[in-house]
Amino acid sequence: MTGRRPVTFVRPTLAVVAACVALLAAGPSMAAGDVEAPKSPGFSFQGPFGTYDRGELQRGFQVYQEVCSACHSLKYFAFRNLRSIGFDEVQAKAIAAQYEVMGGPDEEGEMFERPAVLADFIPAPFANDNAARAANNGALPPDLSLIVKARAGGEDYVYSLLTGYADPPADVELGEGMDYNPYFGGGQIAMPPPLFEDGVEYADGTKASVDQMARDVTTFLTWAAEPDMEARKRMGIKVMVFLVLMTVLLYMVKRKVWSDVH
Amino acid sequence: MSSPGSGNRIVQWIEYRLPIFSWLDHTVGSGYPAPKNLNYLWNMGSLAGVALVIQIVTGIVLAMHYVPHGNMAFDSVEHIMRNVNYGWLIRYIHANGASMFFLVVYIHVFRGLYYGSYKYPRELLWWIGLAIMLLMMATAFMGYVLPWGQMSFWAATVITNLFSAIPLIGEPIVTWLWGGFAVDSPTLQRFYSLHYLLPFVIAGVVIVHIWALHTHGSNNPTGIDVKGPQDTLPFHPYYTVKDLFGLGLFLIIFAYWVFYNPNYLGHPDNYIPANPLQTPPHIVPEWYLLPYYAILRAIPDKLGGIVVMGAAIGVLFLIPWLDTSRVRSATFRPIYKQFYWILVADILILGWVGANPPEGYFILIGQLATAYYFLHFIIVMPFVGWFETPRQLPDSIATSVLDKGGGADTAKEGAP
Question: pTM for the complete prediction?
Answer without folding.
Answer: 0.91
